[in-house]
From TrEMBL:
Superkingdom: Bacteria
First and last residue of the signal peptide: none
UniProt cross-references to InterPro entries, sorted A to Z: Bact_solute-bd_prot1, SBP
Protein known as: Extracellular solute-binding protein
Family annotation (Gene3D superfamilies): Periplasmic binding protein-like II
Length: 444
């Protein structure tokens, strides 16, 4: 497995953790950008050059190639500004609405750009998709939808997919003589089985609230369907009062009471590979985690990744309204365009973001260890370094009727942070199910 795959995976992980970055003052942000990006950084005269911001990590080489190819055929040149990943969101928010704002920039869609859309700072790309069917059909529909805000497209998919997957330890399952769960009844039965075996049923990094968020996301999706959170994302705070939210909270605490996560999950971390190591060492049987878990294990526990790491879908719940093929996680990252651009510069920016739909771009993503979001990449994905896993992941997302963006990315920052706190309190039983619902309804 290429080390680039690990770099890409860590970027996805950091995307979940971005709210933990230190808060910087506006002056410090501007200074850090100027020093980190080198020549041509934000704040310098741009002339007819497009300034393209990207989250700096191992996957950035794909975007460097895109810039190179674009500049070979465009009168308006593009310049890539690689912004250090930690604190990227803060830097982006600080720059938007100022003369230092990027022309094209990397983001997570949803709530990460919602405020910019509200203030008219971004180009509505809906007309481009409407008049260019080939462009629109280049991407898996459920992923393209994640770039929408208020029913309009503001993002073009530009990196690999990052769904949340239910991983399991094949060796532990074989020793217990059981199979991965197909139903919720199976899952509950496995909790009892592994407890008797002296194995924690599910690894959970309880010190990192975003890992617990994944459980809440899938449970609500399976119980109430993707529409419940869509209402919340659209600004309907009363949707937190939907019966499916209460049922989700009750199910979380039922899992805690059953011992699904063991007794020490509150002190287990993810960022230092605590949960992943417990899982790989056979001390936990399953782990609900983003797709980057594979590359983490490949780098840190290569024998486990090669021989004993399995994966499956999150099961349906009894009487649940959700489609068991639906997925949650980070669909991908997106390019968005500043509305300050006019004329030839705006047209050039649109042509640049369209490069992400081209065959060579998908090929470069696969070569980098990513699973592309383009709709006709089945054969390409089969050439991935880890073909079985890559094909499974690609098919999972391609066939998903919906792909719900991680809630802490989908909601505005002022709601996302207290939401994570409330979820952690729910898992720690500092809030009861009804108290959790009331606390979430109070968020505005």
């Amino acid at each position: 497995m290429r080390t680039a795959l690990l770099g890409s995976a860590k970027a996805g992980r950091r995307g979940f953790r971005r709210r933990h970055a230190a808060t910087l003052t506006a002056a410090a942000l501007a200074a850090s950008l100027l020093t980190a990006c080198g020549s041509g950084g934000p704040g310098e005269a741009k002339g007819d050059t497009l300034e393209v911001w990207v989250y700096q990590d191992a996957s950035t080489k794909v975007q460097r190639e895109a810039i190179k190819r674009f500049n070979e055929n465009s009168d308006v040149k593009a310049e890539l500004v690689e912004v250090p990943g930690e604190g990227y969101q803060d830097k982006m928010r600080s720059a938007m609405g100022t003369p230092n704002a990027p022309d094209v920039f990397f983001n997570w869609g949803g709530g990460s750009i919602g405020n910019f859309v509200e203030k008219g700072m971004l180009v509505d790309l809906t007309p481009e998709f409407e008049k260019d069917a080939e462009f629109k059909e280049s991407f898996i529909p459920s992923i393209l939808e994640a770039g929408k805000v208020d029913g309009k497209y503001y993002g073009v998919p530009m990196r690999g997919m990052q769904p949340v997957i239910l991983f399991y330890n094949k060796e532990v399952f074989e020793k217990a003589g059981v199979e991965p769960p197909n139903t919720w009844k199976d899952l509950l039965g496995l909790i009892d089985t592994f407890k008797k075996e002296g194995v924690t049923p599910f690894a959970l990094a309880g010190t990192d609230a975003w890992t617990e968020l994944m459980w809440v996301e899938y449970l609500l999706d399976r119980i109430g369907g993707a529409e419940v959170f869509q209402r919340i994302q659209n600004g309907d705070s009363e949707a937190w009062g939907d019966p499916a939210v209460l049922k989700t909270a009750e199910t979380v605490q039922d899992l805690v009471d059953r011992g699904a996560f063991g007794k020490n999950y509150k002190s287990v971390n993810y960022t230092a590979d605590g949960a992943s190591t417990l899982f790989a060492k056979g001390k936990a049987a399953m782990h609900l985690m983003g797709s980057w878990e594979y590359s983490n294990q490949k780098a840190n526990q290569p024998e486990f990744a090669e021989k004993h790491l399995g994966w499956t879908t999150f099961p349906a719940l009894p009487d649940g309204k959700g489609d068991p093929k639906s997925v949650v996680g980070n669909p991908t990252n997106f390019w968005s365009i500043s509305s300050k651009l006019k004329g030839a510069q705006r047209e050039a920016a649109i042509e640049f973001v369209k490069t992400a739909s081209e065959d060579w771009y998908a090929e470069t993503l696969v070569d980098n260890g990513d699973v592309p979001t383009t709709s006709d990449s089945e054969n390409l994905v089969a050439e991935h370094d880890a073909p079985d896993y890559a094909v499974y992941q690609y098919d999972m997302v391609r066939d998903a009727p919906s792909f719900t963006l991680s809630w802490d990315q989908a909601l505005p920052a002022q709601q996302a942070s207290p939401m994570l706190t409330n979820i952690q309190k729910l898992f720690n039983k500092q809030l009861g199910p009804e108290e959790f619902v009331d606390a979430m309804k109070a968020l505005k």
